[in-house]
Design goal:
about 170 residues; alpha+beta; four-stranded antiparallel β-sheet; 2 helices; about 35% strand
Length: about 170
């Protein structure tokens, strides 16, 4: 979900560089809020024949703050498993603090849920890769690029269709 209503001073942090007047954002901070790595069947999980099935979860969340800034969080979950066992499970909540400037109100939500996650993703990808390498997996798990615009548009279409009707027996 997103709190896309800009606080009163949301545009106060306009960039001073080159007098740029176009819409944009600044990344003020990036951080790991939560990281979990599990390798429950080690060392047996390090000798898996074939390629494990990968279950990937992606969530984006954004909210405005009283100081006019926005917090954007990217939650990535990766579970690798075979028929016999869970090979590894990684959960990462990676966030950023953003200042928007010159962004029209109708473009704030897409900016927060598409563009901001695009900038956070490479860092989150590296953290997951490093965690799987440290867990003993070679080669480490590398996330493929994620289409944040596609995820956003799919979610908007789902919202436009409204809640699903309860199934009737």
């Amino acid at each position: 979900m997103t709190d896309a209503t800009p606080p009163a001073d949301a545009n106060a942090a306009a960039p001073a560089e080159n007098g740029a007047a176009g819409p944009g954002f600044r990344i003020l901070a990036q951080y790991v809020r939560d990281l979990s790595f599990e390798n429950p069947k080690a060392p047996d999980s390090l000798r898996v024949d074939g390629k494990p099935a990968i279950d990937l979860g992606v969530e984006m969340n954004a909210q405005g703050r009283k100081d006019g800034l926005f917090e954007v969080e990217l939650r990535l979950t990766v579970k690798a498993s075979t028929d016999a066992m869970t090979v590894f499970n990684v959960e990462l909540l990676y966030g950023g603090l953003f200042a928007l400037h010159g962004v029209p109100e109708q473009d704030i939500e897409p900016m927060l849920l598409i563009e901001c996650p695009r900038y956070l993703f490479p860092y989150a990808r590296e953290i997951i890769s490093r965690a799987t390498a440290d867990g003993g997996f070679y080669p480490p798990f590398m996330l493929d690029p994620i289409d944040f615009a596609g995820i956003y548009m799919s979610r908007q279409q789902q919202i436009a269709r409204g809640p699903a009707e309860p199934a009737q027996a």
